[in-house]
Specification:
homodimer, 111 residues, mainly beta, Jelly Rolls, Cupin domain protein (chains A, B), RmlC-like_jellyroll (chains A, B), Cupin_2 (chains A, B), RmlC_Cupin_sf (chains A, B)
Chain lengths: 111, 111
């Protein structure tokens, strides 16, 4: 599903939501482009995303920390981007609670 | 080629360049993600991009106008995004000369 109503990525930002807000902006069999809004969300300790697809992700507003199972971690601020290869286990350690964090994520086929 | 040195999309913005600056951020057979920096660039009248791939594009800094052969035009400001289906002919009518315009473009296979 494409949300053609969301013409601007910084529109309709919620103040505080119980779950992350995910909007699919474009999608076909090769790629899925999502806006993800976090308001202080984080994954639980011990949880890891383990994805079939590659993910290229950028933070465009707010701040967040990604942690990788291999041990690295990165704090991401607006403009910072990261490629997360398929099956590179990772989690969101925290997102700021001072403002909404806006991620743009591009998931695409690994092979 | 992936430019792993460009960790932040707003880094290394040129003031004035003769041609648009294109940096490939991630790429495989399904997708190519590019940062494009324009400093007042535009396509010539009569020129149309006619692409084999779909293009999802967003302006993240600056301002620009896209024109479509079918007649529509859209002024894009930071956060505004647009899906340009394969073979939808379009051109950049203008980009602001007041500051660099930063585009993020995701090209992906149409079929």
């Amino acid at each position: 599903m494409t949300d053609s109503n969301l013409n601007n990525l910084f529109q309709n930002l919620p103040d505080k939501i119980s779950e992350e807000l995910i909007t699919i902006l474009a999608e076909n069999s090769h790629v899925r482009i999502e806006r993800i809004v976090s308001t202080g969300h984080a994954n639980k300790k011990g949880f890891w995303y383990d994805q079939e697809e590659h993910e290229w992700v950028i933070v465009l507003k707010g701040e967040a920390e990604l942690v990788f199972e291999a041990g690295q971690s990165i704090v991401m601020q607006p403009g910072d981007h990261q490629l997360i290869p398929a099956h590179q286990k990772h989690r969101v350690e925290w997102t700021t609670d001072k403002e909404p964090t806006v991620w743009l994520a591009v998931y695409y086929q690994a092979k």
